[in-house]
Amino acid sequence: MTAVLEVTGVVKRFGGFTALSEVSISVGAGERLGIIGPNGSGKTTLMNVIAGRIRPDAGGVRFEGRDIGALPAWRRARIGIARSFQIPLPFGSMSVLDNLRVPLEQGGEADPPGRAAALLEDFGLFPRAAARAGDLSQVELRKLELARAVAGNPRLLISDEAMAGLSGSEIDEVLELLLRLNARGIAVVMIEHMMRAIMRFSGRVVCIEAGRIIAEGPPDAVVADPGVRRAYLGA
Amino acid sequence: MRSWVRFAAGGLVVLLLAALAARWLANDYLFFAAFVVLQFVVLATAWNILGGYGGYVNFGTGAFVATGAYAAVALQKLADLPLPLLVLAGTAAGAVLGSALGLLTLRLRGIYFAIATLAITIILETVVLNWDYVGGARGITLDRPHEDPFFGTYNRMLVVLMAGMAVVAVGIARWVGVSAFGRALSAIRDSEDAAEACGVPTLRRKVQAATLSGAMMGAAGAPLPLYLSFVDHTAAFGLNYAVSAMAMPMIGGTGHWIGPVIGAVLLGTAQQAVTVTISSEVNVLITGLLLIGFVVAAPRGILGWLGR
User: Fold this and answer.
1) Of residues B208, B199, B65, the one with CA closest to residue B128
2) Predicted-complex ipTM score
3) How far is CA B91 from CA B67, B96, B114, B242, in A?
4) Which tens digit of pLDDT belongs to each residue from A126-150?
5) Does A151 sit within 8 Å of B198, measured CB to CB?
6) Closest chain A residue to B204 measured between Cα atoms?
7) What are the residue ranges spanned by the domains of chain B?
8) Which DSSP category does A128 fall into?
9) Of B187, B190, B197, the CB nearest to A83
10) Which of A76, B159, B257, B308 is the residue whose CA sits 20 to 30 A from B72?
11) What are the tens digits of pLDDT across the range B172-223?
């Protein structure tokens, strides 16, 4: 499997606190990678480094073989790195349809309204196209986040706790969506506390604790790892 | 496309009415009031591009008006340039200040940005106070024509010019509102992080919006010293510019190009009426009270109230 993303030796400090120390991961094209770890272990910081929202103090990020360390977040979005946010960040005053027009227009799409409508249909949000995004329910917001993230035809999607705050059946809905997106060839990195989702979704799991990777491998093996159980599952 | 034809036709009607009134209407005070209201249409519309669409509150409208005004004053004194070039110079000077303001958004957001824009006003006012060439603290009287071959007086011609600027400004704001550029600005207002993740070059768009907004404000400031034939720092940097340019879009509604126009016409006319019937001090009070009233009772302005 060729790597779509390679992170090598990333270090990030906030003042005296080391959020990430020498973290290296790689994501294969079309892979489903789950990332677990206790709160504050550095998962979101790592995703912010990948997406270009924060600059690491050391280490490198390569996307499809290209060094993207110097690229700002918007450039990374345009070359194919998409993300959804832990707390949904809709363009709340805009219509659901216009939320999707933004990434489509930035990506140079020929027919943004038409493509946006097709995406909404695909994500089951079409009946809500004219609604203000700020008026959506939690699960609708999660779907909108994902639709907006993949509007620019990314090769990598970072899903940051997309299941947080959802009910059981809603979790299944979002999980189905992520699996469908992956089936279209988008590599998905899923940060999640919901172990049921991680186990069902991931082909490989990485566990981060205190800014370091403490285990990596097939889901069953990582969950059974004594270090992981101690750090994350509290057993 | 058809809606643009209608808009252009409406703009032409406004201009024609202004020109006809300038030729045949007798009351000179009405022209002064019209100049002020039209100038506010430009300023409120310009403010709304950065403040309404982009969500960056600019308290420095006075600095931009003064930049346009003093660019015109300096060039008129230096080279006695014709009016169109003076307006162009005011526009350019406003654009330069606007792009500097746009760069501030790299580090400052929300209330901190707003405070910085206020600081810019104070800094520039200090510069003008100490710049003797343009009159310093004393102010400067401008030598300009009093007659106009077509409209009778020079001032009436300036009112028609300001009407033209208002139509152009509103047309620009209307375009921004329906363009990808405008949607990118609205995305920035709602969530800068999400906008960036959608591929919006946020800093570039903010600098462009601030430059455009500043250019329009500078343009509106350039005819001011010519109209008054005298200008000093209190006239150019007046707090009323900052407060009104912000209050008008908020009262009218910030989400749509017509909002600032409604706000400017209503508030601007009310201010003029109060100035004549009560006093010029009370008119600022009226603005303040109306702004508070709207922020509390109708935060989305008259348009929000009407359900648009």
Assistant:
1) B65
2) 0.91
3) 9, 9, 22, 18
4) 999 999 999 999 999 999 999 999 9
5) yes
6) A74
7) 42-301
8) G
9) B197
10) B257
11) 999 999 999 999 999 999 999 999 999 999 999 999 999 999 999 999 999 9
